[in-house]
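Moderator note: this is an archived Q&A kept for reference. The question asked for a predicted structure of one protein chain; the sequence and the answer are reproduced below.
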Amino acid sequence: MYFRSVQAYTLRTLTFPSDTLKAFSGMGAVLGQALSSEMIHGLPASIFDLALLWQPAGKMSRKEGFPSWSWAGWHGAVRWNGDTMELASYGSLPDLKQELEVITKWIRTRTWIDWKYRNQNGTENLVWERNREGKAGSVFWPSSGYHEVSEIGYDSKAATNINPYGRHSSSDPTITAYKTRHSSPPAVCLNLAKIPDYLQPLCFQTLSVQLFMKPSNHYLRYGSVDPVWEPNGRVVFLLYTEDLQTCGYVLLDEVWKSKFCAEESYEFLLLSEANYYCDWGRPHEDHPFKRFNGYRDYEEFHVMMIEWKKVGGDGTKAAERVGLGRVLKEAVRTTDAKNIAWKEVVLI
């Protein structure tokens, strides 16, 4: 499917890196048709929350002309880890029908961000819109009693002006509480209008958390669905709360071993709920919150580490992706108020 295709494609070395998406366009068209979805800088709109969760398969560096939130914006190979795909809960790699079932259920019940972007005409659009996307072909899912489902990803039948992505619920109380307080977001992302078109900005609202970090010798492997861990220019940084409780990790380029400061906090954006506990050497399994909660599912968030950069002469700032990781929900719930905020973010 899409994920395996991109993983294979990013192993290639192009003569002209600026042709990254042009060279992918043929494959992208086939994948987009299968998902009945537009492609937004190489990411299918219908499963955008999941497509954003790519990780570097080795050392990576930024590529000019493409946004940091897309795999196309980086030199190097990418992959989606087993836990991100939530495949390991089957004990073995599932078939396509099972995979689509898991993805669609997760997209509709474990995500909350209403993604917006600026299209080629300069107007602000939702990344996915029920009137713009087509419908996927019928899929029969065995674990649902051979129930026929006609749409993959976001639910066009459930989509409304208030719930544009057709999500079925927001199960996490922390996200629900913050989102309810900001139940009337601006119709237009004011900061988006200040960002130059060539930076290809993405606009959204979510929780931002300040955390501390330090490098570790831990590795990331999530069951037999993932290959044996090799650092390949990557380092797992453990994340800490202000009272020095280990609460998660982020996967970064090894250059951060010399860049980071243990006394400084760094900003992480909550992206979606994360599932799947295992004992394959996860970097934060000895965290007291984890023991207290008894290894329940969906006790973590997917998070993106960002840096803010000036993008205009007027001092306007936009965020760039630095790395992806996970944070325990309990750490977010108990974070001091000064270290957490609901933000409008422009990501370039």
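Archived answer notes: The longest helix spans residues 20-35.
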